[in-house]
Amino acid sequence: MIIYPASPRPSYADAVFSLFRLRGLKVKVIQETNELQTAIGLVASDLGFSLVPEQVMRMQRDEVTYVRLAERNITSPIICSRRREPVTPAMQMTNDILRELVENRVKGRYP
């Protein structure tokens, strides 16, 4: 398995590891990289496989085949980084949008 990002942790990589761990599966990590593009390139070079978000399927590479997981309800967290202060108008608007998205998800309005 080719995993990304190698750092910082916790990250998407840890979410992927937990998917395997929760199912009692062990994976052998062949390579860790910090960039998604590098992980895809290593897959294209036939070094291994990588679990990537569904949107990555849009990145057409002749050497890479994307296969959907059998469990359609698996999701990955979205992580948002922001500075602490000062809160700008654009940052406040972003915070409001993110808060609404989370509330809608919790209330079951979005799958």
3D architecture notes:
With 111 residues, this protein is mainly alpha-helical. The protein folds into 2 domains: 2-58, D-Maltodextrin-Binding Protein, domain 2 (3-Layer(aba) Sandwich); 80-111. It has 3 helices and 2 strands, in the order E-H-E-H-H. It has a two-stranded parallel sheet with strand order 1-2. Strand 1, helix 1 (12-22) and strand 2 (31-32) form a beta-alpha-beta unit. The protein is globular. The mean pLDDT is 88.
Label this structure with key terms:
111 residues; mainly alpha; D-Maltodextrin-Binding Protein, domain 2; 2 domains; two-stranded parallel ribbon; 3 helices; 2 strands
**Span between N and C termini?**
29 Å
Which structural class best describes the helix and strand composition? mainly alpha
CATH architectural type of the largest domain: 3-Layer(aba) Sandwich
- The number of distinct helices, counting runs of at least 4 residues, comes to 3
Strand tally:
2
The CATH homologous superfamily of the largest domain corresponds to Periplasmic binding protein-like II
Largest sheet: 2 strands, parallel
